[in-house]
Design goal:
GO terms for molecular function: lipid binding. The chain has about 130 residues and is mostly beta strands. It has a single domain, classed as Lipocalin. The protein has two helices and eleven strands, in the order E-H-H-E-E-E-E-E-E-E-E-E-E. The strands form two sheets. A nine-stranded antiparallel sheet has the order 4-3-2-1-11-10-9-8-7. Strand 7 and strand 8 form a beta hairpin. The longest helix is centred in the first third of the chain and has 7 residues. The two termini are about 15 Å apart.
């Protein structure tokens, strides 16, 4: 599982605790509806420690964060808020602290597993590799 393990395209497969999580982080109800069981395609471009992490939503909307492991970067939350964060690599996982939640991403076989935690509510999103 080399350094390029994250590069690829992944399609949303399942999630857990979506409603509790997005309500807790304060997403508006229209954004909550848009995101529910949404077939998001996550595209990860990786060049060493440099990442571009793009989510393609049905209907053509995209959201993209670019960052370098260990360096502060400008990022955007699910709700569109801008903030600064430093992503770290811990035991093969990418770890970042968003303004109101803690986020990890890892590759398990052909799946991208993303876990966000806010006040003990753990949101888990699983996506399967499609490219």
């Amino acid at each position: 599982q080399g350094n390029m393990a994250f590069a690829g395209k992944y399609e949303f497969e399942s999630d857990e605790n979506y409603d509790e999580f997005v309500k807790k982080i304060g997403l508006s109800s229209d954004k909550i509806e848009l995101g529910r069981n949404c077939k998001v395609i996550t595209e990860v471009v990786q060049n060493g420690n440099d990442f571009t992490w793009t989510q393609h939503f049905p209907g053509g909307r995209t959201m993209s964060n670019s960052f370098t492991i260990g360096q502060e970067a400008d990022m955007e939350t699910m709700g569109g808020k801008k903030f600064k964060a430093t992503a770290r690599m811990e035991n093969g996982k990418i770890v970042a602290d968003f303004p109101n939640y803690h986020h990890t991403a890892e590759i398990c076989g052909d799946k991208l597993i993303e876990i966000s935690n806010v006040c003990g509510i753990v949101y888990k999103r699983t996506s399967k590799r499609i490219a």
